[in-house]
Amino acid sequence: MSNDHDPGLHPDTVAIRTGRVGDATSLAPVLWPTSTFVSPSVDDARRMATSVGADRFYSRYGNPTVSGFEQAIAQLEGAEAARAFSSGMGAVSAVVLGLCSSGDHIVAQRQLYAATQLLFQAVCPRFGIDVTFVDGTEPGAFAAAVIPGKTTLVFAETPANPKLDVIDLDELGAIAGPVTVVDSTFGTPVLQQPLRHGVDLVLHSATKGIAGHNDATLGVVAGSRELIDWLWGFAVLQGASASPYDALNATRGIRTLPIRVARQSATALALASALEAHDAATDVRYPGLASHPQHELAARQMSSGGTLIAFDVVGGLEGGRRFVEAVRIAQHATSLGGPETLVTHPASTTHVNLLPEELAANGIGPGTIRVSVGLEHADDVIADFTQALAVASAAGAGA
Questions:
Q1: Would you tell me how many other CB atoms lie within 10 Å of the CB of residue 114?
Q2: Residue 190's domain spans which residues?
Q3: Which end of the chain has fewer beta carbons closer than 10 Å to its terminal beta carbon, N or C?
């Protein structure tokens, strides 16, 4: 089967045709489960051991199944190359520690996934890397914090976890000097392509929407071949290489990624609208709603509002607790992007390690709920949330 890529194809078509390197005539992705390969000769072994991306030498260096997944992400993102990792945080840490050294400076937004924030706050200082946090929604904040000759990396996450703040990709891509990076996990390659806005690197926790079935754990970074080759060298030493089993599941997930995201986004808009009209839900955040603070920006750089919603349940911590424990169709679980609608209480899970003032700075309250919208019928999900909100508000009234 041809692996040729026409840059004029729509993402829906690319998702079907891409990532087939090494699959020969097989329609399904081919699994190469081996950890190592037989080398024909000493010269061949030496060549592979000293070349970038050899995928038939040793699977920490590369693997044909993983290469297919990397090719798929690169083509969906409009990148020259990609490198897969064993988790999203494996990808984040590889970018940060692979590009920055002692004495360097990073600019990052405050609105971040908590593990990424803790990497910047707790790990980077141990290696002599300074980090400045800015409000990513404030125009010019990233560029203003850059220290010429010292800032090596500018790191953004959009839409941001969990309150879905949206960052201006054009503004970020226009920053000259440091390497610019966007965590686009919530966006996926079918909602936005940061590289097309001038950003240098885009990364994903492919565990989430890309794989899309809660059966794979991996991350991926895409960008220019020069940057990816540099990160490949660090990744081989880091050792957080993607499993071929997970890469196969993620490539399979890519085949349905556009249609899944379209269905989930449509349901998310309907659910967000219903939540906005409900007395027991406040501060409903969804980029597709006109009430979102960066709605116009989201409309310019995203193909839809996406699959995530955030809102606060009236009644604070107890209201949030009762809500997540009252849903019947949605599941209380800490992930996103799968076929099931999931509800998460960030203050007690994804962001539990942040201090109260850090939670407040990220807009996370005791009753904040993050919703990953699944593939159930929209009417059923809305009915489920309506009854769960009734339980939560009734308990609050009774108290």
A1: 21
A2: 11-255
A3: C
Residue 111 sits in the same domain as residue 241: yes
The CATH number of whichever domain residue 205 belongs to comes to 3.40.640.10
**Beta pairing, strands 219-223 & 105-109:** unpaired
User: End-to-end CA distance of the chain, in Å?
Assistant: 64
Per residue in 261-309, pLDDT tens?
999 999 999 999 999 999 999 999 999 999 999 999 999 999 999 999 9
State whether residue 204 is helix, strand or coil: strand
Q: How many domains does the chain have?
A: 2
pLDDT score, position 22? 86
Burial zone of 272 (CB within 10 Å; 0-12 exposed, 13-18 middle, 19+ buried): buried
Query: Are the CB atoms for 222 and 195 separated by under 8 Å?
Result: yes
| Angstrom distance (rounded) from CA 92 to CA 239 | 14
Q: What is the CA radius of gyration of the chain?
A: 21
Q: What is the largest CA-CA distance in the chain?
A: 77
Domain match, 311 and 189 both? no
* CA–CA dist 87, 74 (Å, integer): 17
Angle at 204 (CA atoms; ends 202, 206), nearest 5 degrees: 145
CA distances from 237 to 60, 94, 96 (A): 9, 10, 14
Name the one residue in this structure whose structure tokens are 């965590």.
183
- Domain-terminating residue out of 255, 282, 313: 255
Rounded (5°) CA angle 325-331-334: 95
d(CA 17, CA 375): 23
One-letter amino acid of 123 = V
Q: Are 285 and 292 in contact (CB under 8 A)?
A: yes
pTM beyond cutoff 0.90: yes
CB 91 within 8 A of CB 220: yes
Cβ neighbours, 10 Å, residue 347 = 22
Cβ atoms of 232 and 54 within 8 Å: the answer is: no
Strand-pairing partners, residue 332, are 343
Tokens of 263: 């269905």
Give pLDDT tens digits for 222-263. 999 999 999 999 999 999 999 999 999 999 999 999 999 999
